Request: fold
Amino acid sequence: MEFEAVIGLEVHAQLLTKTKIFCSCKNEFGAPPNTNVCPVCLGMPGSLPVLNKRAVEYAVKAALALNCKINRYSVFARKHYFYPDLPKAYQITQYELPFAENGWVEIEKSDGTKKRIRIKRIHMEEDAGKTIHGEGFDENSYVDLNRAGTPLIEIVSEPDISTPEEARLYMQKLRDILVWIGVNDGNLEEGSLRCDANVSIRPKGSKELGTRTEIKNVNSFRFIQKALEYEIERQIKVVKSGGKVVQETRLFDSQKGITKTMRTKEEAEDYRYFPEPDLPPLIIDDEWLESIRESLPELPDQVKERFISDYGVTSYDASILVREKELAEFFERAAKAYKGEAKRVANIIISDLLGVLNEAKLDISDSPVTPEGIAGLLTLVDNGTISIRVAKEEVLPEMVRSGKSPEVIVKEKGLVQISDESALREVIKKVMAGNEKAVKQYREGNEKQKQKAVKFLIGQVMKETKGKANPRLLNELIPKVLEEG
Amino acid sequence: MELLNKSLRELGNLIRKKELKPSELLETLLKRIEETEEKLNAYITVTEEEARKRVEVADRELEKLSEDEIPELFGIPISIKDNINVEGVRMTCASKILKDFISPYDATVVKRLRERGAIFIGKNNLDEFAMGSSTETSYFGPTRNPWDLERVPGGSSGGSAAAVSARSALASLGSDTGGSIRQPASFCGVVGLKPTYGRVSRYGLTAFASSLDQIGPITKNVEDAALLMNIISGQDSKDATSAKVPVPDFLSSINGEVKGLKAGLPKEYFVEGIEPEVKEKVFEAVKRLESLGIEFEEISLPHTAYAVETYYIIAPAEASSNLGRFDGVRYTYRAKDYKDLIDMYKKTRAEGFGDEVKRRIMIGTYTLSAGYYDAYYLKAQKVRTLIYRDFEESFKKVDFIVTPVSPTTAFKIGERTDDPIKMYLSDIFTIAVNLAGLPALSMPCGFDSSGLPIGIQFIGKAFDEETILKVGNALEKELKLNTLPPL
Ligand SMILES: [Zn+2]
Reply:
């Protein structure tokens, strides 16, 4: 029997607000432990939560970007459990009435096919603090409440995901969108985006859902795929050997690449949800919603379509360009500044600039090369001042190093290409004199050998001119000079 | 005693005219506290030193200020129920679990009083976490009623009411979740006001039942209550449930005309279980109000019958949630020997909480559990809506409602501690008001044959504390009771 997997993801995304969701403490990563705290986020007696409007705006922005319906009336609730990093012994979240529902995102698989993953709901909640167990100090556990009260949205997908690859792509897509619209920093290592996965298997074609397990804390794109691959395989083995999958929560061990039982259904906690009496219902009126909608930038998929239709960029290149907003903006500015084909702009950015920046450990957002610089560089190639090789190998790296314009670099380094025929003839003659074997091969050899000799001599001329010889001209001249004897 | 018997306004005027130094007033009060505390146990903490430091500054400042620069409570000591935060002062909530907790911040009401010149003299005793009607569940021992030391002062704000009654406090702030200001005010012969839900910020009040709790004044007279209401009322950016409703000048409106007002007497409030003397005195007061031109009619609040049951689902549910934070991890008492985290939680909470608190945490945890939530909590919220609608209907016909505060006068210490149900019933007339979020005033209207004070309750429309304060002030002037206990 063949099996298929049914997967749903719950993704927690921290919102990049300046302050926490229910108090005015700073929302930042990496501060000394327990310094960004106050009576509210410490759960001191008598303290009360007040909802941060900016957090609502970020959350709504995310929900709109994920094609959700915004509920104008939503309610906060308390979710109870005891843990040292949960100061109030309850988390303020949304339960029965979340602020957003019924959205979707589209993923593009490696074979180019597209698939829509539906989003069931998005709700707002507060993050807990962090418990640190003895790390390097001693046997004690320590609690850092800086993170307590960080605004989160939890994005719950429908079980529309069928493979671990799709799960990874979905998560990546969410990250790209949230980073693009500026509500999340996309930093999985720092926990800005965290994922729990629900997975079950069923005979292929079956409509019924199997018993699912929940895998907690799969916090990198690679781990999502690996954890799910392992878990699906495990469930199939259980069923094939006549067993039954047990409903439980499992933890992914990233070192061993396996999932392990954390707690079974019987041990599941009763969170005793009830509406948060300290917060009135959240009402999002027309005016507010519209102003949030207006603040939403053009989304990556829309930009991608535009790059393809307006700039003639290939679909593949366009999807690379829209991976980051800064990159897309860089491309568009360069494409506008450049008179020639925008495709060439895309090409040099993707195949050369990104690599050089990467070597220099720079992001596109702090690139010393401006979009206008890229346009200028290509223009120098087009008007014959430099060859494309010189442009890519000599000028571009120097642009990244020094931040100077291509024109200045070409002048300073004397990289202007030799397009003067008589000057080139001199060099060719000199090279021929030093490479009699190749000359002989040309004169006596068959067509194939002739070509080989020309290629060799071009290389030698380039070497002699430090790459400045105009390659097109060289191609014409070498056979001519050889024939002339 | 003459000084301590004066109203806040009179004291303020004396200080403003520089006829009374804040330090003199403080020393007089401290002496009275010293005289009475051994008998009453109305305070958990007296902040003598801090208060002395503050009045020293106030004395000096007074010299520099002109009469109209001096705020109305300048240098006047106020006491605060010990479940409200005063920065730098211990706040115990009368519980072992918070016995060493020092408040890191001021409650909004405290901040507002400070801004009007008040200083703080100490923290009043209460039932542990305000759960009780007798101030007997305090970890720091019961408070006694100044009218009869064998009797309870009521609760949970029993320390505040006893202190104000004995004049060992000039005025106090209490909190009222099901009658905790009004019932002790009634038992001790003082005035207590529970404001409309949302009128006064709860920021800094240790939550018992968040959707029912309100802070309010406990004072010697109606005028003092109005004066304090002027200061503590109004929206607060730190409390999302505080209401954006304009605050009238309660003090200037208490002397307004009461003639022509319409009052309702709910028939359900004058039936079973009520002591004849209580009923009698309340009706006598009604007669006096009639003589002032107030018209009375019988009304019906049919769902009142379910108020106590509804309350004892909602309040413990919210309490079980609110008290989770007292877990031994950060600032509370922590049990000594434990083998792991869960064991630490269990022992800390088992040792740190008293029986009544544990009982309510258990009830609340149960009613919020999966499978029971709909049958209990959700249903209780629906009944709550019906109770509110009863009042809403009645207020179409009348301007305010008159009831007794409690079916009995102060009962004996220990008399009801083993019978929680009987204890819960002492709040039968006050609870519906909290469920409906309405304001209500409790004030003395006479004494029973053993000389114990009897209270009358005026329930107002939402955000109409003005009317009930006005009526209360009129009745007070009409009755001219001697409310000074023979202590
Ligand atoms: Zn904070």
Observations:
- Chain A touches chain B through 29 residues (CB under 8 Å).
- Chain A has three domains: 3-291, 298-413, 421-484.
